[in-house]
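Step 1: inspect the first sequence and its tokens.
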Amino acid sequence: MKITRITVYQKDLPQRDPYWLSGGRLRFDVLDATFVKLETDLGITGWGEGTPWGHTYVPAHGPGIRAGIETMAKAILGQEPRALDHVERAMDLCLPGHLYAKAPIDMACWDIAGQAANLSLADMLGGLSEEGTWIASSVSSGEPDYMLGIIQTYRDLGYKVHSAKVGGDIDRDIARIRHLERNRLPDERILYDANRSWTRREASIVMNAVADLGITVEQPGETLDDIAAIREITTTPISVDESLVTLQDGARIARDGLAEVFGLKINRVGGLTKARRLRDLALAHGIQIYVMATGGSVLADTEAAQLAQTVPLAFRLGTWACQDMLTEDVAPGRGVRNTNGKLTVYGTPGLGVAPDEGRLGEPIADYRI
């Protein structure tokens, strides 16, 4: 089997409400999504998606995905899509770095491989668990009662896991965390995500001030060096997200004991081919995992749910459903959807969802052999 055609679509995905990142530093209203269709000479078609969380959050943006695919197209065409490591190597040689631009191609190849084998991605990745994965809400930064109101909205949808954005003012952060913990339900879990907004001093003050609560803080510093320094002077458990990009990052985190949790974002690390290695590294070191997309439609959510459902329950902390935050649905009635606060995949071959092409508009690029 050979890849014979790559078709690229761009689609704006408006959010239901403006979203403020930690400390109100960044506001997002619309996500720039790229959808990729891979066609093969055997008639099997695979779909991929790349939707960064805005253009200014981390080094990843929508136009960069499309430019990267243009650069890599000749190296991708003619490849055997089921030879996933070979496709990965071809992209890495053609375009060093830029992992987020490779993730949609990787997703589409996994989709094709699964369909060809009549297996779900989860079964291809090691085995599908019957138990679905709790969805973690994403709670925009703001005053304590405002944030609690968002959590209540998600409770009404069945959510029991929440990711609350903190950062910006350490006194307010301490108040936010204590207020949300006082109002947390017994069967709920709240992850407090600083999104790199604290300095080392600020992180140590906040994390030590709330150490009695037994919470987990995500990405309290900008870099792994910052997190290593914070780790030495705090006891609050840490999740690493934005600084977990490469296998080398994961190896350092595990070796040096920098974090108790991996926030594994599939698009950020370059796709499922690379993400599965980080999953295995975490499990080998007793590190728990959130598996998520960086944002996007039901396609991205379904990919994350597929990988999440291969992680043993004791290590699987949650996933995300960005689709619940959007006003546009590119695949109505398809893919995994929130059911009582969980995303569950059931073994449909391949990714298990394809978009309605009519909702994507006209292609913006078309590459063929």
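Step 2: inspect the second sequence and its tokens, then contrast the two.
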Amino acid sequence: MNNGLAKIARDGLWDNNPGLVQLLGLCPLLAVTGTLVNGLGLGLATLLVMMASNITVSLIRNLVRSEVRIAVYVLIIASYVTAVELAMQAYFYDLYKILGIFIPLIVTNCAIIGRAEAFASKTTPLNAATDGLFMGLGFTAVLVVLGGMRELIGMGTILAQAHIMFGEAARNITVQFSETHDVFLLAILPPGAFIGLGLMIAVKNVIDRRMAAKEILSQTQVVSSPSQA
């Protein structure tokens, strides 16, 4: 992967993560992350839509008049969301029923329309596809980590109801860590979602500050070394 694609990947996964940095798409992010499986399902659906819409917008970027570009982008996103929704109804119906209105609401996810307008409409299909892939992976990672954390603390399990996404073979892969009387129910309630996301953002900020401090220290040592010599 060349430096340009590597930077796009890093932006999507960490530096410009839609959920932790841009703080976009927070409504579904907070609403459906009661379990890891729910978060994974919505995250993958969002990833597919973001990647497909980015590629399409990049391919037609020179054909769309600037006056109607936003309407065209929304139409493209809505078309892919409809396709994903119908596929989920056909193959993952139980998961579709749980996610409910948040599947069609992917159309209004600011992260998707934002990337289409700010990035995909100004670059090549390869860069647009890479951006969609890693922005989607970054968003999915936040959903999965937040969902897993809330499920573990609030229910004492990991991978509860995994069969609704992975089939009957996964019905027994749920890991039970504690009994129901030992859990902290606030974690699976709406306030728990806000607290969990806040903690994740705080951890990321701490990591970023430590990395920045190490980089400054290493640059200082490099600059001071010749003068000492």
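Step 3: confirm your contrast with the notes below.
The mean pLDDT is 92. The CA atoms of residues 70 and 117 lie 8 Å apart.
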